[in-house]
Design a protein that fits this description.
Helix content is about 40%, strand content about 0%. The protein is mainly alpha-helical. Helix 5 crosses helix 6 (about 95-105). The mean pLDDT is about 75.
């Protein structure tokens, strides 16, 4: 929602949020070059995964880091893995099991984007 509001404020018109603010991992260079300025992207990637030259040495590049209450993130992530993408993840445990086994895990094979706490 924040992305949609920011995009609307910057451009004056509305698009589907995934068209207006694409996932940087899914955007082709052609699509990026065709976007009007300011270009806004979203990602769940940790800060350390961003290219060093973009994250530190480009003065015109700005980042907005949003984070949520970890309880909310855990519930959302659990729903994502057990209900939304059932064909891909197929997590069948309880929320309590998910919290212990996945959300609090530091194993990158289990926690898709690493630990929530590593992002802070």
């Amino acid at each position: 929602m924040l992305y949609s509001i920011q995009y609307t404020c910057c451009t004056g018109y509305r698009l589907n949020v995934n068209e207006a603010v694409p996932w940087i991992q899914e955007a082709s260079q052609k699509d990026i070059d065709a976007m009007k300025s300011p270009r806004i992207f979203k990602t769940h990637d940790p800060w350390d995964w961003l290219p060093r030259h973009v994250s530190c040495d480009t003065p015109r590049v700005k980042f907005l880091f949003c984070y949520r209450n970890p309880k909310d993130v855990c519930c959302s992530y659990y729903n994502h893995m057990s209900r939304v993408f059932t064909g891909h993840y197929q997590y069948t445990g309880s929320l309590e099991e998910f919290y212990r086994e996945i959300f609090m895990s530091r194993d990158p094979c289990l926690a898709e984007q690493g630990s929530y706490f590593d992002h802070l």
